[in-house]
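[Discussion] Sanity-checking designs against the backbone

I'm trying to build intuition for which residues belong where. Below is a structure token string of 339 positions. I'd appreciate it if someone posts a full sequence so I can compare it with mine line by line.
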């Protein structure tokens, strides 16, 4: 479809290339992306420059995972004929927009961002936070606005970052005296934050508490077996708690049978349903979800040249779109032009 007649709302979202994607990505974002790729004009960003903001000591990891994340996209059903997949570091307009936007946000505002505060704590940076890391919400604002996206399907942790983006949008629009940039809305699913298998608040690549989309059947079995339930639920006959019970949070995210799930919850609360039975049910669901993904992924991974072609083509398209936004903004700000 040519861009001049494509009136679908625009989606921009993406993932840091820090490791293969996991069930948290699936629940938080990938599932929506697959569902929306026809009704929306969708761009997916392999965020390698953002990944460098806390991995400057290991650029090889960031490089290696570009294709890994692309394999995951294709394996879950992202269709490259419907969705444009592109590489952040191949789009220089994003870096240039970031540089411009940095002048429209204060350091104290960045330091107050709740997502950044949590992430700084998790990474143990304290005062030694890399400047690039502190400023990545500005780079993310550049990504979203460069594509003129209005919809951003993300997990709950990203909500403050979309708010930060919209603040920058309003600030710039005020500066140039018209709505040159558009505000975006976070689209967060019912289970917006999948906990780690260790029960920690968020399943995350960098916390080592994830079930990856390419996990083997044995890895899935093992992860479910180790999962945290209700520590007070010792015998099957004891009444159990659903809240904070990781196994049920996973069932909320991945079960398609709402009625069966409600029945299980009811029996668990009342007493009479053992952890082993609930875990077996979850394991069946996860094995059935991941088997076809694993199989498709292996097929793409056997053809890296083909996948590279998809990224090249997508990045060319994205380059055109992001450069158009940059040119418009430079003109609106009245920057000096040499032509
Ligand atoms: P890293 O630890 O390197 O930051 P990550 O696992 O947090 O990796 P990101 O690439 O930062 O993954 O996140 C990409 C997208 O996936 C974001 O939209 C984020 O909200 C979503 N996401 C990541 N983890 C989860 C989770 N546990 N639950 C729901 N959504 C998630
Ligand atoms: Mg993250």
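Best answer:
Here's mine. Compare freely.
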């Amino acid at each position: 479809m040519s861009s001049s007649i494509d009136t679908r709302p625009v989606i921009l979202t993406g993932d840091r290339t820090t490791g293969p994607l996991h069930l948290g990505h699936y629940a938080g974002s990938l599932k929506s992306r697959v569902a929306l790729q026809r009704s929306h004009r969708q761009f997916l960003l392999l965020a390698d420059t953002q990944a460098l903001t806390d991995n400057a000591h290991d650029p090889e990891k960031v490089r290696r995972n570009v294709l890994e994340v692309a394999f995951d996209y294709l394996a879950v059903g992202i269709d490259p004929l419907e969705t444009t997949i592109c590489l952040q570091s191949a789009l220089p307009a994003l870096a240039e927009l970031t540089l411009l936007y940095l002048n429209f946000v204060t350091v104290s505002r960045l330091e107050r961002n709740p997502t950044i505060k949590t992430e700084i704590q998790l990474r143990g940076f304290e005062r030694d936070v890399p400047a690039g890391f502190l400023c990545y919400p500005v780079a993310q604002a550049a990504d979203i606005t460069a594509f003129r996206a209005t919809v951003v399907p993300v997990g709950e942790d990203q909500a403050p970052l979309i708010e930060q983006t919209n603040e920058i949008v309003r600030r710039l629009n005020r500066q140039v005296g018209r709505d040159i940039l558009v505000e975006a809305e976070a689209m967060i699913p019912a289970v917006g934050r999948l906990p780690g298998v260790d029960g920690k608040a968020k399943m995350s690549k960098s916390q080592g508490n994830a079930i990856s989309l390419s996990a083997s059947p044995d890895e899935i079995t093992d992860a479910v077996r180790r999962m945290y339930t209700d520590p007070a639920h010792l015998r099957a006959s004891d009444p159990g708690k659903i809240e904070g019970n990781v196994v049920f949070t996973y069932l909320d995210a991945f079960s398609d049978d709402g009625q069966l799930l409600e029945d299980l919850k009811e029996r668990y609360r009342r007493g009479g349903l053992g952890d082993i039975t609930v875990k077996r049910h979850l394991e069946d669901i996860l094995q059935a979800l991941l088997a076809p993904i694993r199989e498709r992924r292996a097929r793409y991974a056997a053809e890296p040249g083909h996948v590279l072609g998809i990224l090249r083509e997508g990045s060319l398209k994205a380059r055109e779109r992001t450069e158009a936004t940059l040119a418009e903004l430079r003109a609106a700000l009245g920057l000096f032009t040499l032509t």
